[in-house]
Design a protein that fits this description.
mainly alpha, 1 helix
Length: 115
């Protein structure tokens, strides 16, 4: 009877220890999971900030490129307008000299005809 009582007592002690161990392991697991969650959250926040910075940098680059393209287009349009203006002026002066040339040719032909 005493042997059975001792075994029962030892069994209860072992069960108590096992429960305490299981409880401790559960708490440790919970803490580890919490740490992992916090670490993942911090990493996600870091990644989000990095993406935000990169997006801002990309936007600035795009804005600069857009401004440069706009400036180049404006310069090209101005150059074309300037060229057209010069051509128009040149045509005007050439037209005047052409008509002068035509009239002088006419008078030369008339003079030859009289001879």
């Amino acid at each position: 009877a005493k042997l059975a009582k001792d075994q029962s007592k030892r069994l209860k002690e072992q069960q108590k220890k096992a429960r305490a161990q299981a409880k401790k392991e559960a708490e440790n697991r919970k803490k580890a999971e919490q740490k992992a969650k916090e670490k993942a959250k911090a990493q996600a926040k870091k990644d989000a900030e990095l993406r935000k910075k990169q997006a801002k940098i990309q936007k600035e680059k795009d804005d600069k490129a857009r401004a440069a393209a706009k400036k180049a287009a404006k310069a090209k349009a101005k150059a074309i307008a300037e060229k057209n203006k010069r051509i128009k002026e040149l045509k005007k002066t050439m037209g005047a000299s052409e008509s002068t040339l035509k009239s002088s040719t006419k008078t030369n032909q008339q003079a030859k005809a009289k001879l």
